[in-house]
Amino acid sequence: MARMTTWTISPQAPGSPVAAALWRAYYTEVSDRWYLRYEGRRTDPQELEREIAATTGAELTPPTGRLLVGWYGGTAAGTAGVRLLDTGTAELTRVFVRADLRGRGGAPLLVAAAEEAARALGARRLVLDTRDDLVEARALYARLGYTETAPHNRDPYAEHWFRKELVS
Questions:
Q1: Does any domain span residue 44?
Q2: Which tens digits make up the pLDDT trace of 111-155?
Q3: How far is the C-alpha of 3 from the C-alpha of 164, rounded, in Å?
Q4: Which parts pass through the membrane (predicted)?
Q5: What is the rounded CA–CA span in Å between residue 60 and residue 12?
């Protein structure tokens, strides 16, 4: 008989070793994809370390944010974060599942947990941005009911912006 492995999702402090390791994996992947696309190289290791150190994730802590970690069979497998932008709007960020654990249903569960966390923070809508080359992310958001909208920020790497109204 095959053993079922399940996902669990729990809040995590952004500075915890688990969150830091997942942030490193996330940032390395998206940075490398950008540099490979535009410059034909991977991220410079010194630049990677500077950017990781500069982005603490402090905005993903209560009372105005939350970082969630998805665990697959007891292994830290992915993240999703939310942070309030104003009293009714939260931003979805750091949605990531480790490459070796993709295709097992974790990303939709992380997004759903982030939506619930945003509601708990008082948000009525979620917004997010992503890049053109992150086609998997764009497909996920569309599948989960996010609609593409006009820009809501001036992030130099953002090329697509999405929004979803949260219902109780």
A1: yes
A2: 999 999 999 999 999 999 999 999 999 999 999 999 999 999 999
A3: 36
A4: none
A5: 9
